[in-house]
Amino acid sequence: MPLFLRFRFLPWLLPCLLSSLPAAADTSDWLQVQRFQQQLEKARGGDTQAMYDVARRYERGRGVDMDMQQAVAWLRKCASAGNPACQARLGILYFTGRGVAQDHRKALALLKPAAEAGIPAAQYQLGLMYQYGTGVAQNRKAALLWYQRALENGDYRAEAKLAELRRQPATPPARPAATPKPRPATDRTRETLLAGTWLNGNRPADILPSAIARCEPRGEEIHCTAEQERTTDTDIITTRTETVLKDIGKGAFTVTYSGTVLSVKPKAELTSAPIDDEDEIGGTLSAVKVGQKSRARTLKCRLLNARHIRCEGGLRSREFHLPDT
């Protein structure tokens, strides 16, 4: 066939080829789309590790549009089939309330068998629960046990937690009770803050009492500490946020908070034996370094009602709410 005849059909051929890509997928990386389709076929055939892969791809938008409903559905399917990685991830979602209604009892029921099966992310999560008494009775010995197992299985976040717990006395010394200044009997701002498990969108709040923030009253102030992960294009970064709530009264209060980087891990492709549900430990080229601290920020907050808070400061406002009952 003459050369010009070969190329005369190209304008009509390209749209046909492109139309074969899944409509909902992220077509910017065809290899990711292709990998998703391969794993989806295996998952439909009953491969529980492929179900886990498909769920995580839905959760992160790898090769397909992000869809937490689909992610949770696949995790439930492979968790019920006994896959420990699926049990661990679904347990973490129930703990944080991401994609599902927050439920610490369900989280514990899923995390325990996954931790006993050797999934380090589940072991680390159990350590957090026992350290702070979230969803379980606070138990320093159990927290040390699960952090140690997580570290032995490759979750290096547990190293900092072990050091933190070992620096603390087994029985903390009694702190003299502070005598707070009298408040009007009708002012329940402080009680409302402490009684809630506050959310920022669908995630636990990091600067208010929540599933991830351990808070305690100190005199007229409330002090909170929270640990959480965030994912960049290249790394998984664990940070600790320390917050002080003060000037509490008449439906208003001030929040001052700052963060410290606890660990930085490179993101890696999923493997059949995940370290932290999905990621391998190795070197990182991230500009974020362990020990790096953010500057302190201050927000002015007000209770809009017993279930909603709005905070102003910086370039944008932040809103918090209690979970639906």
Describe the structure.
- This protein is an alpha+beta fold and 325 residues long.
- The chain is built from 11 helices and 9 strands.
- The chain has helices at 3-8, 10-18, 30-44, 48-60, 68-80, 84-96, 104-116, 120-132, 140-152, 157-167, 189-195; strands spanning 199-200, 203-204, 213-218, 221-231, 235-249, 252-266, 297-305, 308-312, 318-321.
- It starts with a helix and ends with a strand.
In a nutshell, what does this entry contain?
It is built from eleven helices and nine strands. With 325 residues, the protein is an alpha+beta fold. It folds into two domains: 22-167, Serine Threonine Protein Phosphatase 5, Tetratricopeptide repeat; 189-267 and 290-321, no CATH class.
Oligomer: single chain
Describe the largest sheet.
7 strands, antiparallel
Q: What would you say the CATH architecture of the largest domain is?
A: Alpha Horseshoe
* SS summary, helix count: 11
Contiguous low-pLDDT stretches (5 residues minimum) are 3-27, 269-285
Strand count:
9
N- to C-terminal distance? 71 Å
